Amino acid sequence: MRPNLLQRFCKAALSLALLFIPLSLFAGPPAGVLDASHASVRAVIAVQNEVTADWIRKPEVLGTAVGVDANGTPVLTVYIDRDAANAGEVIRNLPRELRGTGVQVELTDKFRAMARPGSGVSHTATQTPPIQLGTSGGWSKDLANGYCCGGTLGSLVQIGGTQYILSNYHVFEADIVPGGNNTVATNGDPIIQPGLIDVNCNVNNAQTVGTLVKRSSLPGSNVDCSTAKVVSGMVRTDGAILEIGTISHLTTGAFINQAVKKSGRTTGLSRSSVSGLNATISVTYDNECAGGTAFAKTFTGQIVTNNRGSKFLNSGDSGSLMVEDVTTNPRSVGLLYAGSSVDAIANPIDEVLAFLGATMVGQ
Amino acid sequence: MVRDRLRCACYSLVVAVFLIGCRHNMAQSNSPPPKRDINAVLRDHDKELMAIPNVVGIYVGVLGDGKTPCLKVMLSRKSPATEQAIPRSIEGYDVVTKVTGDIRPLHTP
């Protein structure tokens, strides 16, 4: 007689159970680990299952999860849309506790799928020369203390008829102690594309596109800039920037709510708006890649741009040129160099150019 | 004739009292003196604000209406002592705090 479907299912389930019982004896979590079998976690999950369907109907509530409070005790975490107009009211109406389970609120941006709608342009790949700017790059020896560092080769400037790649002091020449790599940044050192971070820290996998011409802008001046003399044939002589194209040789002053864009190693082409002017900002610099503190610098007259969630500027974008957000030959506004997940900071480009005695290469 | 002169004098007196009253009222409704340029205000106060613990930056921004200039103070973190030390307004301009975290150079790693 052929076994019916139910019998076959039961046999399969029994086999699986027999397989997993011995495994679980050896692979179980150590005592005290807050996994799904922990009594406190189960209690939170029970509360979560009870309330989530109801709470999440509110547009301000983005989700719930089992979290821990400051004491490490499992609690029910409720994610609230930080941009929602009624967020405060929703938070006030949430219980602090449900049947002995703590309820805590976490304000967050809206959750989104992380797959970027690819523009198809890579800002980290090795380009066929002559390269466009707005790409990964840096000092060829920027490897120390178990890390390699880099930034963005942002734009092209001209000084006395010679073309130079413009980036930041802290991208090209901030290694000022022998420290973890037994060297310091020196004039003539290769400047490479992509930066070490994008070639597994192996300089042999990158190409030399310029040679370092130190400007020692920091800590003395009010700009964070440095240059590399272009190696003939390695950089587009029209100064084209990835996803921006050619720019104007003219500059323009920043103003509040000005629409701006930039092209950089990490966040590629991104757009934002100016939120503040004439900023006095304190920034702390390392003495080499992942090194100790070299100095804290207070800049004045800086441009502040909205950078919520680091979507406009993130680590690796230093050196990017901020331009006005127009389609054709935008004018330069600032040299981006610092920020947080809230604000991005740029030197006014005119101050950078005056320091270097340079003009932008453009139309 | 005398009566006309008397009437004229009375009118003059009324007008004079009225004018004096107006002048007095204008002096009483003393409008605030014009504000200094906000960039000059920032320049004169940035050092004292930057000296407050957890302050990492100050800039000229706008209020929620998108147009009224104000001074924005960037904080590495919120703390009651810091909030208490920062004035609510300076020379007639609102001072608004925002937690930005530390401002750091944006190279990798």
What is the terminal separation of chain B in angstroms? Answer: 101 Å
What is the H-and-E element order of chain B? HHEEHEEE
Strand count of chain A: 20
Instruction: Please give the share of residues in helix of chain A.
Output: 10-25%
* Rg from Cα of chain B: 27 Å
Helix tally of chain B equals 3
Give the total of beta strands of chain B. 5
CATH topology of the largest domain in chain B: GMP Synthetase, Chain A, domain 3
Oligomer: heterodimer
CATH class of the largest domain in chain B: Alpha Beta
* CATH topological fold name of the largest domain in chain A: Thrombin, subunit H
- What number is the mean pLDDT of chain B? 83
The major sheet of chain B is characterized as: 4 strands, mixed
Number of domains of chain B: 2
**From the helix content, strand content and strand pairing of chain B, which structural class follows?**
alpha+beta
N-to-C series of helices and strands of chain A: HHEEHEEEEEEEEHEEEEEEEEEHE
User: What percentage of residues of chain B falls in helices of 4 or more residues?
Assistant: 40-55%
- Please summarize the sheet with the most strands of chain A: 8 strands, antiparallel
Q: How many helices of chain A does DSSP assign? A: 5
Describe this structure in words.
The complex is a heterodimer of chains A (363) and B (109). Chain A has 363 residues and is an alpha+beta fold. Helix content of chain A is 16%, strand content 34%. Chain A has two domains: 39-108, GMP Synthetase, Chain A, domain 3 (2-Layer Sandwich); 135-360, Thrombin, subunit H. Chain A contains five helices and 20 strands. Chain B has 109 residues and is an alpha+beta fold. Chain B starts with a helix and ends with a strand. Chain A binds chain B through residues 138, 147-151, 168, 170-171, 195, 197, 224, 256-257, 265-266, 275-286, 289-290, 298, 300, 302, 304, 313-319, 336-345, and chain B through 39, 42-43, 46, 50, 56-62, 66, 72, 74, 98-109. β15 (268-286) of chain A pairs antiparallel with β1 of chain B, so a sheet runs across the interface.
